[in-house]
């Protein structure tokens, strides 16, 4: 239900900026994040809340993934092998 609300808010925010200025601003933000420039956060200050929540949730998933089973996604074709492997059976002696 919360995802539907976020989606509805993103549609409303998207209709308000159809000229691509928001996309250009966020692309500069990503570019500064990738190149480790410290002033990247200033570019997100004027962005609507729904976009900032989306960025926060994305970074949260990225930071949490090494501690979950989803870490296998980062191993490329190893992820497919992980999905198709047989279950491990653990027995007591």
Automatic annotation (TrEMBL):
<keyword id="KW-0813">Transport</keyword>
<keyword id="KW-1133">Transmembrane helix</keyword>
<feature type="transmembrane region" description="Helical">
    <location>
        <begin position="40"/>
        <end position="64"/>
    </location>
</feature>
<dbReference type="GO" id="GO:0009055">
    <property type="term" value="F:electron transfer activity"/>
</dbReference>
<dbReference type="GO" id="GO:0008940">
    <property type="term" value="F:nitrate reductase activity"/>
</dbReference>
<dbReference type="InterPro" id="IPR023234">
    <property type="entry name" value="NarG-like_domain"/>
</dbReference>
<keyword id="KW-0560">Oxidoreductase</keyword>
<keyword id="KW-1003">Cell membrane</keyword>
<dbReference type="GO" id="GO:0020037">
    <property type="term" value="F:heme binding"/>
</dbReference>
<keyword id="KW-0614">Plasmid</keyword>
<protein>
    <submittedName>
        <fullName>Respiratory nitrate reductase gamma chain</fullName>
        <ecNumber>1.7.99.4</ecNumber>
    </submittedName>
</protein>
<dbReference type="Pfam" id="PF02665">
    <property type="entry name" value="Nitrate_red_gam"/>
</dbReference>
<dbReference type="InterPro" id="IPR051936">
    <property type="entry name" value="Heme-iron_electron_transfer"/>
</dbReference>
<keyword id="KW-0812">Transmembrane</keyword>
<keyword id="KW-0472">Membrane</keyword>
<dbReference type="InterPro" id="IPR036197">
    <property type="entry name" value="NarG-like_sf"/>
</dbReference>
<feature type="transmembrane region" description="Helical">
    <location>
        <begin position="70"/>
        <end position="87"/>
    </location>
</feature>
<keyword id="KW-0249">Electron transport</keyword>
<feature type="domain" description="NarG-like">
    <location>
        <begin position="20"/>
        <end position="93"/>
    </location>
</feature>
<dbReference type="GO" id="GO:0019645">
    <property type="term" value="P:anaerobic electron transport chain"/>
</dbReference>
<dbReference type="GO" id="GO:0005886">
    <property type="term" value="C:plasma membrane"/>
</dbReference>
């Amino acid at each position: 239900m919360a995802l539907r609300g976020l989606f509805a808010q993103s549609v409303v925010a998207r209709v308000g900026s159809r000229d691509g200025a928001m996309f250009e601003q966020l692309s500069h933000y990503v570019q500064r994040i990738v190149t480790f420039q410290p002033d990247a956060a200033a570019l997100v200050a004027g962005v609507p809340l729904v976009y900032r929540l989306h960025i926060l949730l994305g970074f949260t998933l990225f930071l949490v993934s090494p501690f979950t089973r989803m870490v296998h996604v980062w191993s490329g074709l190893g992820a497919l092998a992980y999905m198709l492997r047989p279950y491990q059976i653990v027995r007591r002696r």
